[in-house]
Amino acid sequence: MSVVERWSGVLGGLAAVLVLAALWLLFFDGEDYEARDLRGRTPIIVAAEEGDLKRVRLLLEKGVRIDAGDDCNWTAMMRAAAGGHREIMELLLDEGADINHLEKSGYSALMGAVVNNRLETARVLVERGADLDVQETESGQSALMWAVRNRNPEMVRLLVEAGADTTLSNGKGQTVEDLARAMEADTSQPVARIREVLGCSP
């Protein structure tokens, strides 16, 4: 075998190795997309919680589990809802995220949005058919009850007009009207507006 033939074989083998290396980098970049941090959050949950839309899109393209839950069973969509990241939440819903997924204490994405006074994401969830009347298991509060407790009349109106059940009772046997009446000493405008929406007598 001549020197030229020998070097041709070596270069051909090297080219094949380089092609394989390029394909490896293309299809496997070394990142574990299902790895969990100390709170049990996967990368997509972290990205959604931090409002990183570009990162969420990238992870979806990688085929990550969209409804993976953290240590408390909060999903990426739920974190986006609670954080007020509407675009991310809508993207995850469009990609098939469970709108009524419950974390370990029975909180839903809608409840997360309501508790954190995220009116915009709450409105989207309501429009997309989220369960309005689920009650968490710690104290039996519904989304509407949390809206009343937060003294948020806009949120109360949104939920009431969407058909939320005003007759549900929490773990203490209180309805939303009971919660509103318990605020009688509070004469602020938000509480007055909540009583008006609920039809409570002053």
From TrEMBL:
Membrane spanning residue stretches: 6-28
Xref: Pfam families: Ank_2, Ank_4
Origin superkingdom: Bacteria
Record keywords: ANK repeat, Membrane, Repeat, Transmembrane, Transmembrane helix
Protein name per the record: Ankyrin repeat-containing protein
ANK repeats: 39-71, 72-104, 105-137, 139-171
SUPFAM superfamilies assigned to the protein according to its UniProt record, in alphabetical order: Ankyrin repeat
